[in-house]
Amino acid sequence: MLIDTALLNKLAKLGGITLEDEELEMTKNHLSEIVNFVENINALNLEDIPASFNPLNSKLPMRQDIIESKPEIAKNVLEHAPSVEDNFFIVPKIIE
Length: 96
Description:
Elements: H1 5-15, H2 21-42, H3 71-79, E1 84-85, E2 88-89
Antiparallel strand pairs: 1-2
């Protein structure tokens, strides 16, 4: 599908955006690439894949949830903070 200036102007109007003249050609090229990519996906043979296919149904090995205490990480982070007091970050007050 070819994205022409008239279609791009219509899409910009529907989207409530304004495109400058120098942005039009670049935007047309980007949208044409996206539409061509989607057309490639539409050409795939998906007959053997059920409509309810979900890759998340696969089983992954579980690992132990082990709590580890590494105080050196907190110490290293606090050493690089601009302002610290009693192992806490000090940040500027933003609400009066």
